[in-house]
Amino acid sequence: MGTWETVDYATEGAVATLSIDRDEVMNAFNRQLRLDLLAAFAKAVDDPEIRVIVFTGVGRGFSAGADLKDAMSARETGNQRIEEQLQREYRPVLEIIGRSEKPIIASINGAAAGIGLSFALMCDLAIMSDNAFLLAPFANIGLVPDGGATWLLAKQIGYKRAFQACVEAERIPADKCLDWGLVNKVVPAAELREATAAWAASLAKRAPLSVAATKRAMRHAMAGSWGSTFDVEASLQDALILSDDNTEGVTAFFEKREPEFKGR
Fold it and tell me: What is the CATH T-level fold of the domain 7-204, as seen in this structure?
């Protein structure tokens, strides 16, 4: 278990679950949450016993975005420019999600808005309750989407849909999120926790080295060319084919049994 003020950390088998715990403000981000999330993700990423990470929120939603009272206080006191806050406090957490070799599942239990949207989209996989929604509300308060939201949305749903979603600041309901490919699964709200746990446990049985390499290649492909991606895949394949997990996978195939991967 974790000891952070704003993040609950729990493990079950090879799965770590990180839950934002600021339900009183719809899990909005303040400075303490940014620091706690960075530490909690680092713990899960560095733990050799953990193969899959689940990221969710406690209570009514995933995250309503930035805590506006916290942001206004920082601006009024002149303690920190928003650009500095984004670069120094938000970016490291988002980057650890993208760079982690372990798959990270966003379990979206309610609103994922503002920079909370960016965190949900940054995860490798997403499962969503049927009463949840995504929202980029920035145009309503005279701001621009941040946390890489414009890139993430444009990459995942295309420029026109992404631009419309941002400038019109309309809620994207769960069924549309699934239709647009923003999430992988939508389940009844009462079943979200159980469905997330089952999915994470299933992924934890996959070959860890293969999962990590696939994530690395896929993340490169998002911004790289076909040729550079081909090169990355070839290099990764060259290393994986010598692994014990590859031998185990092939042996299990011929023996018609479930493989037992060790991550080596």
Answer: 2-enoyl-CoA Hydratase; Chain A, domain 1 (3.90.226)
Cα–Cα dist 169/138, whole Å: 7
Q: Give me the pLDDT at residue 3, please.
A: 79
Residue count of the chain, please give it: 264
d(CA 208, CA 68): 39
Write down the domain spans for the chain.
Answer: 7-204, 208-255
Cβ within 8 Å of residue 66, ≥6 positions away? 28, 29, 114, 115
Q: Which residues of the chain have pLDDT under 70?
A: 1-2, 71-80
> Which residues are CB-contacts of 184 (< 8 A; sequence separation ≥ 6)?
125, 126, 127, 178
Q: Note the pTM of the prediction, 2 decimals.
A: 0.93
Q: CB–CB of 217/233 below 8 Å?
A: yes
**CB-CB contact of 120 with 94 (8 Å):** no
d(CA 210, CA 198): 20
Question: Left if phi > 0, otherwise alpha if psi is -120 to 50, otherwise beta: which for 39?
Answer: alpha
